[in-house]
Amino acid sequence: MCGIVGIIGREPVASRLIEALKRLEYRGYDSAGVATLEEGHLARRRAEGKLRNLEARLNEQPLHGFVGIGHTRWATHGRPTENNAHPHATERLAVVHNGIIENFRELRDELTGRGHRFVSETDTEVVAHLVTDEMDKGKAPIAAVAAALPRLKGAFALAFVFNGAPDILIAARQGAPLAIGYGEGEMFLGSDALALAPFTDTITYLEDGDWAILSREGVEFRDAEGLVVERAKQKTQASAFLVDKGNHRHFMAKEIHEQPEVVGRTLAHYLDMSSGCVRLPFEMPFDAASLSRVTISACGTAYYAGLIGKYWIERFGRIPVEIDFASEFRYREAPLDAAGLMIVVSQSGETADTLASLRYAKSQGQKVLSVVNVPTSTIARESDAVALTLAGPEIGVASTKAFTCQLSVLACLAIAIGRARGVLSAEREQELVSQLIGVPGLMAEAIKREASIEQISYGLSKAKDVLYLGRGTSFPLALEGALKLKEISYIHAEGYAAGELKHGPIALIDESMPVIVIAPHDAVIEKTVSNMQEVAARGGRIILIGDDRTAAESAIDFHGHISMPPMPPDFAPIVYAVPAQMLAYHTAVAMGKDVDQPRNLAKSVTVE
Ligand code: M6R
Q: Over the stretch 267-281, which tens digit does the pLDDT of each residue have?
């Protein structure tokens, strides 16, 4: 959840550490810090809050060292204060950390007993003292790190710089991602390739248990046993992507507007437009004839994409699908049949719970297919087959384009499963594919509703609570709409299956309650209209996301209507996601909230 960087170079590194941290700020922004060696001696600058505070500090008190580390924090242990900000340091070293040291209390007690003095509330500080303790026994930095690492339990990516040792940086990885980057007479490390993209397009990902000793000339990799090992270099595409907002005020706005293009690109990857068929660019990792069940595991928005995928796979593939939050799935010891397929969905490909679900499924003999946006991610690397979403880097913490690309891929997978199992006819496949081909154009149409959405959002920004309703595939979209609104506006919002309303939540309805109903003209529209009538009869303020036909047929006096273009219903969630995202976006903007970096959140959740 935090981002770490390191550079060992031939010129001052502070400004480049900041540049890399800007690309990692999506991982956390509670505090930031850097440490460099100034003429061989450690110097640190840290600041509470966003990176710009650290930049201001560095402007007042610059650092000039040629070797250094940096950190942007999402707080786990200890409040988001400057004192808890990384790097944590002793008189011998400074360290930055992403992850959680689970046994930090027992280590701290042990080290306190040996005279170490702790000054922060973090788990990370124990790492600094553990390595220092080994150095106090006379070990050099490499030997001290080698002795300390096996004592750490939990997930971590670490980077160390040592007082009086300007020629090395040490990095280690256990369960949290870490990339090493290659330069000309300089070396880099970072939590992901995107952070290093301005400096290099050649990287190596550390494997779990690996650690690395960086010098200006190169890197030596060691495995968990301390043996020197080879790790492959790879070229990364990350530098090809410009991480800027274009003409938009926020990354989220840019990413919403990019959707017709990236969904089109993703669909083109899976569809043969000329024959009107799905063509998967990988081998399905299961035998279609004996496939017994599909299990989906994911978190947050990716989970809601999976939930819509369940409807599609059951409808088009005629196979039972079970879905669970990855944080629940990983611990509930679900019996998995070797003839089943596990699908994990993740934008980052690094979400700790989703990765643990993947590993559990593999331990039970299941094949795993991942739907991921980052091809070099841990989840992608550990899967039996990878279905890429071609959304490009998603920077806004609120997931938008990754979601609609995940839906696009899941729609294609559902069709492919149906065809492979012989339960979907070629004619139906062609009909569905032609609907999918129309989706990017419909999304572009939906984007044109932005002015009316902005107006409705202004009213929404005064609400204390908001209900989202939907039936069928619109139900998961109602959950996603509510999640989008709460995470960036901090308005309490709940998504409900429209038919469940009368089983409790209808008690909440009064004149002050906006109820957003997601209602494409599908097979259950009459039922959804009945549910809207129930809300209207109790004075609820209904905002309809639906086409003009639904609005006219229901004869309800809507408080607001986002008029959607008419469309075939099967893949309507991909299009209807757009107004749901825009409602959340404009509501948060109207409230003056920090849309791209909402409080308490981070983009990539690599801790449990
Ligand atoms: O990277 P992942 O897709 O695995 O992330 C899963 C969730 O953390 C993520 O979707 C989160 O819910 C978003 N902030 C929602 O907008």
A: 999 999 888 899 999
